[in-house]
Amino acid sequence: MVGQSPLSPGEGRAVLLEPFVHQVGGHTSMLRYDEHTVCKPLVSQELSFYESLPLAMRQFTPQYKGIVSVHLKKDSLGNLTLMASPGLGQPEGCGRLDKCKWAASASTEHGLVKWSHTQVTKTFRDSCPGKVLLRTDLQYHTDSLLEDVNGNQPEKKSYNPWGLHCHRQHLNRMSSKPNENKLHQFLLLENVVSKYSYPCILDLKMGTRQHGDDASEEKKARHIKKCEQSTSASLGVRICGMQVYQADTGHFLCKDKYYGRKLSPEGFRQTLRQFLCTGNQLRAELLEPIILRLKALLSVIRKQSSYRFYSSSLLIIYDGQEHKESAAPLDHHFPFPKTHGANPSRVDVRMIDFAHTTFKGSKSSPTPHDGPDHGYIFGLENLIKILQSLSEGK
């Protein structure tokens, strides 16, 4: 139900907020609230979108579950303490705050828990036993995380560093002195990859325009340049992040937004093909269900008059390991539930990130646009064409 958190009001249980290990794109830190829920900092424009979401679009967006309040403090040693209210979202400064464990064990139930680099690193590592997703060293420079000395990204990485990179930046912002005692509001959203054992995720920035109507001239110019120098201009879509499980090695191959910005249209096509390869084999059986889902989304977007999905992303998701019905018993130590049902090749397509989405009736859209979002439609049409060409073996 809209406006309600997964916990009933008054339960007062401590909530373990963990880094969301499958964040492949974006700049806002995502946190794992529970098995089926993630949370992200609240932006009023995005909240407005979810609260007035057209019925036809709901199957293509994460379910909105409500709001939670998060309070962060910093001690004299620089350690961070996170406190949260897991009931209904209260206005800033109101309501009882429950202690929120951050990257800690259940044995610390009655005490405030300190956040440290070591603890967060351990959380990432323990979240994926046997699957080394992230390096264990947090003392890195951002540039070295993204490229080598020649400006190239390694083809293969045994970790997905992007979520960790976002966490470090976001926590630094949250712990700055003006924000130190502030009560932060977070959106609670469906974890759209919770049903996958080895989620392969492609994050696509959609449309030919990325800046919102409220962007400054400087920001507008910066985003226009990024679009002109990438496949956003030529295809209406560019890669913002990716992780693909490699069944032959047991690791995820990862790419970030800086890699995506450099791709030519042919490079985009080859990376799209790479996304559908789990090791040495192209998962050709995934192409038709992905194309059908994208066509269904295209039909819906064409009917959404006045909507502009500036800077939003589209996720394409599938399970990186095929599970036969006669498979061995589940590994209960692995935290991501196995895909259930008779279709091991199930795919999903979801729109995310609506902080700059505008539509008629939105408080942030005093001058609404007319007709559907043609830039978004252009990107979807090209994406479908490329996938169809891959399906035909071209």
TrEMBL record:
GO molecular function, a single term: ATP binding
Record Pfam families: IPK
Alphabetized Gene3D superfamilies for the sequence: Inositol polyphosphate kinase
GO terms under cellular component: cytoplasm; nucleus
E.C. code: 2.7.-.-
Family as reported in the entry's similarity comment: Belongs to the inositol phosphokinase (IPK) family.
Name of the protein in its database record: Kinase
Originating organism: Scytalopus superciliaris
